[in-house]
Structures are given as C-alpha cells and as structure tokens.
Amino acid sequence: MQVDEVLEKVLSKIRPSDEERTFVEELMKELRTVAEERIEELGLDVRLYFVGSLAKDTYLAGDHDVDLFLAFPLGTPLEELREKGLELGKVIAEKLDSYEIAYAEHPYVRARYRGVSVDLVPCYDVRNWRDVRTAVDRSILHTRWVNENLNGRNDEVRLLKRFLKGINAYGSEIYVRGFSGYLAEILVIKYGSFLDVVGKADFILRQKIIDPADWLRKEPETALKTVKRETEEDRPLIVIDPVDPRRNVSANLSWEKYGRFYFKAMEFLENPSVNFFFPPEKPKGNYLDELRKRGTALVTLLIDVPDMVDDILLPQLERSARGFEKALEREGFRVLGWNVGRKGKAFIMLELDRDWREKVKIKPGPEFFTERGRNFYRKNEKVWVIGKRLYSEKAVRESAVDVIIELLEKNQVSLGKGIRDAVREADVLLNYVPKELEREAYLFLSREKWNLKE
C-alpha cells in the first residue's frame, strides 16, 4: 500500500465526523453557559478558557476529554485562588453528572458530563510567560500559540499523535516519558507535516535544540540557561517552549521513547502500513514456558497501595525496582530486567539469573576429644580446631526470596519514599504470578513489552 493510501485510511478512522464535531461544540457551549452562570452567582472575576486538544481541534475521533480553565486575575493571592477555584469548580460540577477532587500543583475538580471527562482547573489569567505563577497557567498560552500557528494542519497533528500512540511513545506523564500532544503540535508546526516529522527523525535528534519562537535571539540569557540546564540533564531533545523560554517542552521525553520513534519512523517510511497506527495485539504466550526456555527466575512483589494515583505510584515503583536491582547484585544475583505496574495490586517483577545462591556457612562443632568430636571430624570435609572446639564450613543454598526478605528487614534496599512501608509488607512470589498478571509476566519475560521489532 502506498503511503498516501495508508494515511488516508488512518485519517478516516481518527478524523472526527461532522456529527462528532457538532456534539463537541454543543458540549463546550453548554459547559461555558453553566460555568458563566455559576461565576455570576458567586460574584467572581473569572475568565473561562477551553484548552487542550479540543480547543485546538487536534483531538482524535472518540477522544473528547475537556479541559476548562478558570482564570483568576493576576493579583489574586495563591491561597485564595486555590480556595475559590476549588469552590467554583465544585459549584460548576454540581450542575454536571458527577465529580471528584483531584490533585496536581493545587486541587482541581474532575467531573463527568454527557459521558465525557471534564477537568475544571483554577489558574491565573496570564498574557505572557512573565505572568506565569503556576505550572498550569501556560496551557492558556499553549492553546493560543497553536491556534495562531497551526494554519490548517490539524489532520497532520492527528496523524502524528496516532502514530506515537501506535508505537507506544505518546504521553509526557513521568511514568510514560513519551511525546506530549503539545510537542507533537510544535513538531508539525516547525517541520510542516506528519511525513516531514517522521522523515526528519534523525535530523531532529542531531539538531538537538528546537526553538520555534526564536527565544535564543529574543531572550538569549534566559533561553541559554534552559539549554545549558537541559544539556547537562542529557535530554534527547531540547524544545524551547514557544510561549516560555524557561521551559523545555520535551523535558520528560526519554531516550527510550525517542529511540522507538527513531526506528519506527524509519520502518514506516520503508514499508508504510496502518499497523504502525493501529498495531495488532501483542502475541500471547505462557510465562512458565518462557521461564523454562530462558533458564532464569522470576520474583514478583505484590504491593497494596489502594489510594495512590498512577502519576505518583509508578515513578516510586520504578525507583524501588532500581533499588532491588542494586541490592540484589551486591548479594551476587544478576538482575536481567525489571517491570512495574498496577493490575489490582501494584507489582514489581524482577528477572534474576537464578533463584538461589550458594553461601558458605561456618558450622561450630563439639570439643575435639569427645566421641561427637570424632564423628564431626569424619563427616565434614574441611575441619579445623579453635581452642578445644572443632569447626567446619558448609555450602548452603539460599533462596532469592529469603535474600529479598532479609534485605527489606535490614532496610538495605533504596525504595520509593511513599511506598516503603507497603513494599516491606509485600507478598514475594517466586516463579509464579496470579492469573491477572500472567500475560504481563509473559510480555515482560519475552521482552515483547518493549520489543522494537514487532
């Protein structure tokens, strides 16, 4: 199939239909009306801004999450913004279908309306980067910049987003470390189209610094500080935020996720296929067969952390997995890989080179001149006398599970701060996982979870 045919086929699936667009427009109109009425009732000076992919018309078909920002005047004290912003969010949400309080830099309201998730987020009414007070404030500027610069290339962004999702490189969350939607929009604006972006995967990596708003000329001191800081952090890319020279848009992008993009872009151009955008399901297999084939051992810790959101939990699980890796290697085990996540309970999986180690133990015996002493001498291979007593050494097998339990008891594993107690109370399983983790264990052990050559 030719590349144009592939892209048209993909677009037919990801471009919102006219009916869908009408639904989204009506939804946003209704939300604005509800919010304006509540603002007037409370007598607040608050402006409303829709931000994110819906406001930029870069959303994918079927993805209708709404971000409605409640912008307070710049002179509002931060505590007042948090308090009144949360109160306003709740009052608006009470007119919708349901809601809950969520937490980022400050509390916000996550509601549901007509089957759609609606985030009601307090922020400052910023006009430029110098006004920014909180991390969320820039979203208003991001939306404005994209709408002013996209120039009808909305479908090109859709293609890039869907491609990144398909190759598992989309999402800037700390536990994903991929491309954000905003970064995808910037790349299309900078380079022209989806095909231009994937065609320049190698060039973009070598170029390293992308400065769409020319901050290095307009604000050289601030922009150079950003470049220096991010270079020292060894980021794959430095994309100076076109609305704020202090920020690298790609700060969360990992080398691993850029590596996926690098190779998949090359493969797509060589052999275009819809499968890059909508990959087939990962292969199925039996993790126990995989263990037997590999001759390795699988240790799984099941951890009870019921109230922790993934944004906080997953980085702490990763830190703990690295802690186990270092501690176990000090104890003579090789850790061949690790995997973390949550399926009901949180889990840490560790693949070890073996499930036991030999350890020498010193065995004290009886006094040498007794009958028991003579028996001890006959039974043991290496025997020596200290004072009147006999001693020998004995090689014993020690289970990896026992080693892990002892390491935890002695506080010799570096663990994520918020989950230390939960990890110490974890169930430790050897070469076995519960049914809900069987597929996860197979994908981990077979490396199909990360395999680039799918």
From TrEMBL:
Per UniProt, Mg(2+) binds at 65, 67, 119
GO BP terms: RNA repair; tRNA 3'-terminal CCA addition
- Pfam families (alphabetical): CAA_C (PF21133), NTP_transf_2 (PF01909), tRNA_NucTransf2 (PF09249)
* Coiled coil regions in record: none
Cofactor (UniProt) = Mg(2+)
Q: Where does CTP bind?
A: 53, 56, 142, 161, 170
Binding sites annotated in the UniProt record for ATP? 53, 56, 142, 161, 170
Q: Where is the tRNA nucleotidyltransferase substrate binding domain?
A: 155-278
Single annotated GO MF? ATP binding
Q: Which reaction does it catalyse?
A: a tRNA with a 3' CCA end + 2 CTP + ATP = a tRNA with a 3' CCACCA end + 3 diphosphate; a tRNA precursor + 2 CTP + ATP = a tRNA with a 3' CCA end + 3 diphosphate
The record's listing under SUPFAM superfamilies reads: Nucleotidyltransferase (SSF81301), PAP/Archaeal CCA-adding enzyme, C-terminal domain (SSF55003), PAP/OAS1 substrate-binding domain (SSF81631)
Provide the Polymerase nucleotidyl transferase domain boundaries.
36-142
Keywords tagged on the record: ATP-binding, Magnesium, Metal-binding, Nucleotide-binding, Nucleotidyltransferase, RNA repair, RNA-binding, Transferase, tRNA processing
Q: Where is the CCA-adding enzyme C-terminal domain?
A: 294-426
How it assembles, according to the record, is: Homodimer.
Q: Which family does it belong to?
A: Belongs to the tRNA nucleotidyltransferase/poly(A) polymerase family. Archaeal CCA-adding enzyme subfamily.
The note filed under miscellaneous reads: A single active site specifically recognizes both ATP and CTP and is responsible for their addition.
Q: List the PANTHER family hit by this protein, alphabetically.
A: CCA-ADDING ENZYME
- Name of the featured protein: CCA-adding enzyme
In the record, what lineage is assigned to the organism producing the protein?
Answer: Archaea, Methanobacteriati, Methanobacteriota, Thermococci, Thermococcales
